[in-house]
Amino acid sequence: MIDYYGTGRRKSSVARVHIRPGEGKVRVNKKEYESLTQYLNNNPVWSKHALEPLAVTGNEGKFDLVITVEGGGMNGQAGAIRLGVARALLNYDESLRPILKKHGLLTRDPREVERKKYGLKKARRAPQFSKR
Q1: From CA 60, how far away is CA 120, in angstroms rounded?
Q2: First to last CA, the chain
Q3: Which of 14, 17, 23, 97 is the most buried (most CB within 10 A)?
Q4: Does an H or E element contain 4, and which?
Q5: Using CA atoms, how far apart are residues 85 and 78, in angstroms rounded to an integer?
Q6: Strand pairing category for 13-21 and 4-10
Q7: Mean pLDDT in the chain?
């Protein structure tokens, strides 16, 4: 079976995405779902975001998705899946690069959570100052 692979990362999430020619079935972490929305807490915004590379290239429903995703929350996982799908599509057809690039789907979002510093309540939030 022909299989195209892409890795996506976002925040602390990592997604390994395999796309195979098919009719749009979705399997996430070895479990079948009717759609990606069902996995992403029934949030259609995250699902639309994650599947944007397929929509932009006109490949909706043409591939079965086999996804392994771990780490972070649902928002980060949706972003990781998005990058993974875009990279897998490039593996499938290199001529899709200009379209994906134009929509900014090949850029890894570098933003990570800043570490907490000692003496502070959060990364930058200092304890409330008291004059007396």
Answers
A1: 47
A2: 73
A3: 17
A4: strand 4-10
A5: 11
A6: antiparallel
A7: 93
Distance CA 16, CA 101 (A): 20
Written as one string, the DSSP assignment of 17-62 is EEEEESS--EEETTEEESSHHHHTTT-HHHHHHHTHHHHHHT-TTS
DSSP state of 63: E
Instruction: State the CB neighbour count (10 A cutoff) for residue 70.
Output: 12
The pLDDT tens digits of the residues spanning 24-40 come to 899 999 999 988 999 99
Q: Is the pTM of this model over 0.85?
A: yes
**Paired sense of beta strands 63-70 and 26-28, if any:** parallel
Q: Which two tokens stand for residue 4?
A: 């195209």
The set of residues, in sequence order, having a beta carbon less than 8 Å from that of 31 and lying 6+ positions away, is none
- Strands, sheet with 26-28, edge to edge from the N-terminal-most edge strand: 4-10, 13-21, 63-70, 26-28, 31-33
Enter the tokens of residue 121. Answer: 């309540």
Residue 37, Cβ neighbours under 10 Å: how many? Answer: 18
What span, in angstroms and rounded, lies between the C-alpha atoms of 87 and 100?
9
